[in-house]
Amino acid sequence: SPFGSFLLLQRLETLSLRIEKHAGEYKPARFPKNCPCCGTELKKKNEEHVDFFCNNPICRDKLIARFFNFTHVMKINGFSDATVGKLIHHGYLKDFGDLYSLVEHKEKLSLLERMGEKTVTNLLNNLEKSKDVELARFLAALCIPNVGLKVARIICEKYPTIEGLKSATVENFSEINGIGEQIAQSIFTAINDPSDISYNAFHKLHPMMRFVKTETGEKLKGKTFCITGKLSEPRESYENKIRFASEHQRNKYCIIQNLLFLRHPRPNIVIRHISRHIKLTNSNVPYAFIQVSKI
Q: Among the residues of the chain, which ranges form H helices?
């Protein structure tokens, strides 16, 4: 549809939409040349990319997004977009390390709008609790390109210490099953290249952390879980419940090969069908089927 025109849509029984009427004066779309937040010229990362990016490392919207990702992955409650934006505006937050320096400004923070003493105290308590963290979660929180929590756990299974991560090369990372060259280069650059945006955060924060060592539970290791029924929580929450739910050893870290989610009015029939299929094709594959209501 031309930019600036109007469409009249009809909702069909199949829940799809059909264009009934098109009206309005044609206006050619103009692609923005500058970032709508900071005004920095938009550029491609390289000629292979079709998307344009704001390369300003202190762009306010980019900072808010990075801080939101960090606090979300680290499970630090209380840092909404509005709260982070307010702290950035008043100069308290520039990088991730500044989060753990907020305790030095406790009295001043209490004077900010909608930031009473109780709110500030809760934020600081949550920050202190977040220092007891799994190494993989810390790594995933640093906004390293292509490195989320799942990838970080695969890496930290091979290199479970900070010293191991520092000593690993690109070739070492790429040798890990499930880690390609692009991810290997991203993680290596974040740890070893001072010009990378995640480098300072990694080296500044890891001495503050109290990394929680997790043991590997053999009871559920290598099994594939099929989750059925109505999902009332995000998928990640069920995955975490299974990861830390060893039958006889509570809170043991379990490595799951695959996690299947089924949406079916009669999931037990699907389970029986899959079970028969697995037995016919490969009787050595260990599968476990658990309904959501039983987790």
A: 60-73, 81-89, 106-109, 117-129, 135-140, 149-158, 162-167, 170-174, 181-192, 199-205, 235-243, 267-281
Q: Distance between CA 85 and CA 66 in Å, rounded?
A: 11
Angle (CA) 249-251-257 rounded to 5° is: 90
**Separation of alpha carbons 176 and 187, rounded Å:** 13
**Dist CA 64 CA 72 (whole Å):** 12
223 within 8 A of 256, measured Cβ to Cβ: yes
What residues does 132 pair with on adjacent strands? 210
Report the distance separating Cα 9 and Cα 182, nearest Å.
43
Q: Which residues pair with 261 in a beta bridge?
A: 227
Burial class (CB in 10 A: 0-12, 13-18, 19+), 254: buried
CA atoms within 13 A on the CB side of 217: 18
End-to-end CA distance of the chain: 48
Q: What is the C-alpha to C-alpha distance for residues 14 and 33, in angstroms, rounded to an integer?
A: 39
pTM for the whole structure: 0.67
Closest-CA residue to 112 (of 100, 123, 127, 126): 123
Rg of the chain over Cα atoms, rounded to whole angstroms, equals: 24
Stretches where the chain sits below pLDDT 50 are 1-2, 215-216, 246-259, 261-263, 276-295
DSSP string of 256-294? -SEEEE---SSHHHHHHHHHHHHHHH-TT--EEEEEGGG
Q: What span, in angstroms and rounded, lies between the C-alpha atoms of 147 and 161?
A: 17
pLDDT for the residue 233: 73
CA gap 62, 70 in Å, rounded: 12
